[in-house]
């Protein structure tokens, strides 16, 4: 396995592929729309949250941040100071809106995939403290 880090272009291609693959699995069009609208901001916040605990923010971080966008979305055009200050002010982790445990859309999607799972416990319960 290589120690080289992915370029912004490689990250963008992998991100687009993953977002498209996941969205195709969502049978409910409203849930799919929620996911596609909320995924980019959520994953950008995740990146900032990780980077706030790392070393200094570099231009590479800015390029990677600007590579996090879905196929039908406009790419962000964040500048260095926006990414650096965003990392410094990164909020604590919050689950994205499209994955609110107990939401009626998630319950419906779960029921459509597997009826026996409709009463499944909250998947984030074990992560909360």
Helix content: 40-55%
Number of helices: 5
Average of the residue pLDDT scores: 80
How much of the sequence lies in strands comes to: under 5%
Q: Which shape, going by the Cα principal axes? A: globular
**Main beta sheet strand tally, sense and closure:** none
Number of strands: 0
Could you give the topology of this structure?
Elements: H1 8-25, H2 29-51, H3 59-66, H4 80-88, H5 104-113
Helix pairs in contact: 1-3, 2-4
Descriptive labels:
129 residues, mainly alpha, 5 helices
What is the gist of this entry?
With 129 residues, the protein is an all-alpha fold. It has helices at 8-25, 29-51, 59-66, 80-88, 104-113. It has a domain at 8-91.
What do these coordinates show?
This protein is mainly α and 129 residues long. It has a domain at 8-91. Helix content is 53%, strand content 0%. It has helices at residues 8-25, 29-51, 59-66, 80-88, 104-113. Helix 1 packs parallel to helix 3 (59-66) and helix 2 crosses helix 4. The longest helix has 23 residues, at 29-51. The chain starts with 7 loop residues before the first helix and ends in a 16-residue tail after the last helix.
């Amino acid at each position: 396995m290589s120690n080289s880090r992915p370029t912004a272009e490689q990250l963008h291609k992998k991100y687009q592929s993953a977002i498209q693959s996941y969205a195709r699995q969502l049978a409910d069009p409203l849930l799919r729309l929620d996911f596609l609208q909320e995924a980019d901001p959520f994953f950008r916040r995740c990146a900032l949250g990780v980077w706030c605990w790392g070393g200094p923010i570099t231009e590479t971080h800015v390029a990677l941040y600007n590579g996090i966008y879905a196929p039908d979305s406009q790419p962000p055009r964040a500048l260095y100071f926006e990414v650096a200050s965003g990392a410094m002010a990164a909020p604590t982790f919050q689950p994205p809106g499209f994955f609110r445990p107990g939401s009626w859309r998630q319950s419906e999607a779960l029921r459509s995939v597997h009826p026996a799972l409709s009463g499944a416990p909250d998947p984030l319960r074990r992560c909360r403290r």
